[in-house]
Specification:
Two copies of one chain form a homodimer.
Chain A: H1 6-19, E1 29-31, E2 38-40, E3 46-55, H2 67-83, E4 88-98, H3 104-121, E5 124-132, E6 137-147, E7 163-167, H4 172-189, H5 202-208, H6 214-222, E8 229-232, H7 237-248, E9 251-255, H8 263-271, H9 276-282, E10 289-293, H10 298-301, E11 307-314, E12 320-323, E13 329-331
Parallel strand pairs in A: 4-5, 9-12
Antiparallel strand pairs in A: 1-2, 3-6, 4-6, 7-10, 7-11, 8-10, 9-11, 12-13
């Protein structure tokens, strides 16, 4: 295994090395890496900007996170925010701080995941910053997207009577984290071993290699469906629903029986003696889209195989409740994702 | 002294606390903090994006850096990049990772500097991320600006025969750093003491509280002067000139005698037995603008008191040289700023 010290390249060398193969694909990317700033031309469309910071030891554990997956996920997390505005991501900037514990090969691996996500999602890497750190790895990504003004969907525009919907399955990433934390000991015994995920569980993939719901965004455009409010499920369904309710000044209920939970997630959750619906409600990092639609638009959801109606928006004084499968009403409180 | 633990507020509490007084001032800021992403409307103007990452122990030392100044500087560094595109900064996003060594009051101080810079430079804080870190403080800022397409100035468009110009004075920040490193011991003896800069030297201010050259940008617009190429002096004049030359495929010479060095900088440099021109050439973090203009535009610089012509762009085969005051030619090699 070749190990090139970061100091062998120097800062400019490293930037050049990491970005030399970047080709701009969006016509709106007028100027990419290599100047004081990038230049984006969104003409008469609106520009949407989102940013996220990921810190080693807080957001990820390199014992069981392959660097390529980490790079991929760091991009996905940001694109998910752009899709949650009902906008199309077009550019990202990537800044990293790395300690000399990392070799150039390691940083390469990280960037190969970043480049792969860019390629798959049709996004241009247009700039960033690379610096050293005293300890550990920090990744900061800013994503930029575009949309026509009348297409943008905010969090504060849900209306009483709207249907509450979610894409995909919930709770998988949370259960995947429990599994990896348990298996961490195995990896620790051979520190040179990078975890191999090729034949790992669905739930491990949900944590380590999530996708952003580009397809759901595209479905909205294709069937001309505009959600009334939307957020991505990063902190956990309950926490993210609370954001919509608080900002829209409404209440809501969620039907426990309607929560979409993959079978693999349910089985593994029960292994851990965790109620699957608790994982779905309070686990985070699923990067699904949680949104509300007008009742008259329910019809358009009929053919969306991967979207489910899980509840309804109610009057603010009704509060925010879970209707359990046992017929009880339980108030929903944000428990959020553990690293917050 | 009150100390509120960051954990008392929680992530959402902290974001709300830090941003509750943010008022958007640019009409292009359609949506600020509080959704998945911010929304910017730049109509038919071009959007310019720049990002920088600052890491404790690498880019700043809290022993002698008051947190308010640090927040201010973190913004300035990014705005300087936008001005270096001949664009007007309009928005920033701020992400921070803080360890529990920092109290809410400390983070407040940091943000008070960020807010002050936003206010002075007329920029909106539109989003960001706040998270914990295992160790130390990391600040990641992305600045967004706008310009008409034909006003944008890049690094790769300098022409043979153009005059090489720089704003303000050089080397001050570098000498300020030497001074503070020497005095660090004094501060270390009383760890609770935050350095007081009110009556400190000009050069300490150059390092700890730099300004971005908004006035120079405005001067360009007022007298309808468009530089042919431009960069901000962050890594050091020689290093940044090399960027222009390499990307424009030209050579250049700099007249040592024309280097603008403040008297305070010269005197203190000599105290440290450093040639002042070495500080001006290789010191970094001055955040002045280094740019080239067509010879016929020299006339417009006549009344710009704070801009000096320091050299000329030459053929690529002529290389990049310093003409010393002693009449020698010395090749300029990037030495850059020590943390890179």
């Amino acid at each position: 295994m070749v190990r090139t010290e970061l100091s062998d390249l120097g800062e400019f060398g490293l930037i050049e090395h990491l970005t030399k193969d970047v080709k701009l694909i969006n016509t709106s990317s007028l100027k990419g890496i290599g100047d004081d700033a990038a230049v984006i031309d969104h003409g008469s469309l609106k520009t949407v900007v989102s940013t996220d910071l990921m810190v080693e030891g807080i957001h990820f554990d390199l014992v069981y996170t392959p660097l390529k997956h980490l790079g991929y996920k760091a991009v996905i997390v940001n694109l998910s925010d752009i899709y949650a505005m009902n906008a199309k991501p077009t550019q990202i900037t990537v800044s990293i701080a790395v300690s000399n514990r990392f070799s150039v090969e390691a940083v390469n691996e990280l960037y190969s995941g970043i480049h792969l996500a860019c390629q798959i999602y049709g996004v241009d890497l247009i700039g960033g910053d690379t610096t050293s750190s005293i300890k550990g790895l920090t990744i900061s990504i800013t994503a930029i997207g575009m949309a026509a003004e009348n297409k943008l969907v905010y969090r504060d525009t849900a209306n009483i009577g709207d249907l509450l919907c979610v894409s995909g399955f919930l709770g998988g990433a949370y259960v995947g984290l429990q599994l990896l934390e348990r298996e961490k000991q195995i990896y620790l015994e051979d520190k040179n071993m990078q975890p191999d995920l090729e034949n790992k569980d669905y739930i491990v993939g949900r944590l380590l290699k999530p996708e952003a719901r580009k397809d759901v965004y595209e479905f909205f455009q294709k069937c001309d469906l505009k959600p009334t409010a939307m957020i991505d499920v990063s902190d956990g369904l309950s926490s993210d629903l609370l954001h919509i309710c608080r900002q829209s000044k409404v209440g809501a209920f969620v039907e426990e029986g309607a929560l979409p939970i993959a079978q693999e997630t349910s089985l593994k959750a029960m292994d851990f003696k965790l109620p699957p619906s608790t994982c779905a409600l309070h686990g985070g990092e699923d990067y699904e889209l949680l949104f509300t639609v007008k009742p008259k638009d329910a019809d358009k959801l009929k053919y969306a195989l991967d979207i489910r109606i899980i509840g309804e928006i109610t009057k603010p004084e009704d509060g925010i409740y879970l209707h359990t499968t046992g017929g009880k009403r339980r108030e929903l409180i944000a428990q959020g994702w553990q690293h917050h």
